[in-house]
Amino acid sequence: MRFRILKKNLLVALGLSFIFVTVMFSTRVLISGNDTSSVAHENVLPGDTKFQFDSVQDMKTSVYNGNYKQNIQNRDMFSAEPQLVLVIQVHNRPDYLKILITSLEKAAEVHSFLLIFSHDYFSEEINSIVQGITFCKVLQIYFPFSTQLYPSEFPGQDPRDCQRDLSRDVAVKAGCLNAEHPDSYGHYREASITQTKHHWWWKLHFVWERVHALQGYSGFAIFLEEDNYMLPDLYHLYKDMLAFRKTSCPDCDMLALGNHDSLSADFFKLSDKVRTTGWMSTKHNIGMGISREVYYKLMGCGDDFCSYDDYNWDWTLQHLSGGCIAKPLKVLMAQGSRVLHTGNCGLHQKENCRPEWALQKAEEFLQQAKDSLFPQSLELSIAEPVEHKIHVKNGGWGDIRDHILCKNYAKRL
User: Which is the most buried residue in 90, 98, 308, 355, by most CB within 10 A?
Assistant: First the structure.
């Protein structure tokens, strides 16, 4: 009897040992599998972070490497945490980019900034310009679905896509790829037009979700474009606006450090003035400050942003404000703009670009305004009703492929 019990216990022990060994072996295989993938991953990510421009595939690899490694330029010289983050969307206007960087170099306390350049066009010239910055920390991020990386397929312009002005009936008979998905005005997508909205939305995700240097950052990110020019007291005004918001406008969602009356002769009267109002595309899309909290509000409306038939990110944002976002976004705006718009050449205008004229005009304005910079305090001049402003959508965003890609950015960063 005792032998039977011992035999039974031995069998149970052997069985448990077998299960334990099996589990350990499986776990080891899984760990080894993960290690193998890590090794393979590291092989894809070589130590050299230099951007390669030789081929489309080289650029794709460099984009992946850059976004993964996030090398902070000038980190050794400026080791402190950033006090202000500027996010600059860059396409292919190197002369305007130089003007922006020249203005930033003159900004007070620029050593405490982190500049994030978000690129959708990749060239040695542009890369060299950014690499030449030595006055603060710099991070370059790269839009991975740039039309430059997909020259003959979506999200670039596929030769099998329907031509813009083709009628739907003709398109269906021709069997072009997106025949069933024209925009609200019967036009088919143009990759060069859709890219800006794609890039802006991807950039917003990447900055707040993936940039390691911003983990723990509690300030606003100021969103700019390559054809902007900063006045020297930008950071001073930013700090004053934060203090004003804390005491006098805690429900202000966004900041606008710029406006489109930038070269006003009344700057000396407006330098210390702010106003509050509802966010509007045509007024508050320059030098726009977005906090992490507002980012989360926008993410709750991702499907609406990505399916709304307007190729402009800013008009789409206005559609969300008071629509999907029930309470319209409230903005605290500087009446004396610290962000000038220098671009006389952009998405729709490709000729007669004279950046040297733009620079001369900006420098002349700065000379006139310099005695009015660095105000001691801010004064609320106007508090406008915060209302939802309805507008007629512009179209250009009817293709279901654009909707799907846009909605997936949160998952495919």
Answer: 90
